[in-house]
Amino acid sequence: MRRRDVIAGLGAAAWPTFAAGRAKGQHRLGILLVYGEAHPDSPVIVDTLQESLKRAGWIWGQNLAVDLQYGNGDAARMRLQADEILAQKPDVVLAQGIVGATALQSATKTTPVVFMMLQDPIGGGFVTNLSRPGGNLTGFTNFDFILVGKWLQLLKELSPGVTRALALLNPDYRARLAGYAAELSRIGPELGIDAQIAGVHDAAEIETAISGFAAQPRGGLLVLPDAVTGIYSQRIVDLAATCRLPAVYAYAAPVRLGGLAAYTTSVAQDVERAAGYIDRILRGAVVGELPVQASARFTTLLNLKTAATLGLTIRPSLMATVDELVE
To answer: Which pLDDT does position 296 carry in this prediction?
Structure first.
């Protein structure tokens, strides 16, 4: 288990976390990330957060002590990390994803928590009202369940022969699972796709699910937003390539690792917005009065090399909608 006090400067240095208490006039920020340090989005999150808060006047290691934890997708580990963060008496904590938010919600009913990269905050029980959360949690959602339709449509446009789709997701968060399952059942038949969810917790279950699904033809993958699919994104990309399955991802990082395509939000933009709430809370805003906000801008990424390897012909009309080409 690792704890970090991060000081100013890109490529932040780390100090022991159980050092002396905060300096006079210094505020404290806790950060609980669901990713590990090796995940390609981790430096994006940390650097963007540091720079965004610096622009707001908060300098890491000077007027803002920062306790940064990497959960690496392990829910049990993150519950312990949440307790450790809270033991340092932070003024506010940033939680990534449903796993991070769940760990913090279970650990405190008073410390302000700003979540990001989370889906269905009401159904998941994190807030009771989007416009006025009222408790100690608020933040930013990135994907609504209706985006399943966009992901399935993109898969069909990329590979028109697809008639079966396997969506990968950690099944432990029941409200989220039910939300995605309902949309897959509703949208799939409209596109001529028989879509199902494979509940996965680790690399072995991911490999079993994908390999078994690939035994039948005309299939494609949807990699839903989740800690498990994020942590094992490279393995999923590799399995999709081995099994020659077209795959659409909820995040950009897998496409840059060799995945086929994504329809997604900007991680940096999500972090910048969360930093705005952190700044406001540090300056005295009441967390329960800050509305939950949703991502408003989405982008499409396409890996041309992967498309070519799969023998896909990208229609000009689809190419015109792509925001970023990975070659």
So the answer is: 82
Q: Which two tokens stand for residue 288?
A: 């329960």
| Percent of all residues in the chain with a pLDDT value above 70, rounded to a whole number | 93
What CATH number is given for 4-142+266-294 in this structure?
A: 3.40.50.2300
What global pTM score does this model have?
0.91
Residue 113 — φ and ψ, nearest 5°? -125, 130
Condensed to tens digits (0 to 9), the pLDDT of residues 204-213 reads 999 999 999 9
Q: At what angle do helices 267-282 and 42-55 cross, to 10 degrees?
A: 40
* Residue 219 · residue 166 · CB < 8 Å: yes
CB atoms within 10 A of CB 6: 22
Please say whether the beta carbons of 252 and 264 come within 8 A: yes
In angstroms, the Cα distances linking 203 to 229, 230, 322 are 9, 11, 30
Per residue in 54-99, pLDDT tens? Answer: 999 999 999 999 999 999 999 999 999 999 999 999 999 999 999 9
Measured distance CA(223)–CA(19) in Å, rounded: 41
Return phi, psi of residue 115, to 5°.
Answer: -100, 155
147-264+298-326 adopts what CATH topology? Rossmann fold (3.40.50)
- Cβ atoms 132, 291 nearer than 8 A: yes
For residue 289, what is the DSSP state?
A: G
φ/ψ of residue 82, rounded to 5: -60, -45
5 beta partners? 15, 67
Give the pLDDT confidence of 170-198 residue by residue, as tens digits. 999 999 999 999 999 999 999 999 999 99
What are the structure tokens assigned to 119, written together? 């889906």
pLDDT tens digits, 257-274: 999 999 999 999 999 999
| Residues whose CB falls within 8 Å of the CB of residue 126, separated by 6 or more in sequence, listed in order | 101, 105, 115, 118, 137
| Domain chopping of the chain, boundaries | 4-142+266-294, 147-264+298-326
User: Does this chain's domain 4-142+266-294 share its CATH topology with 147-264+298-326?
Assistant: yes
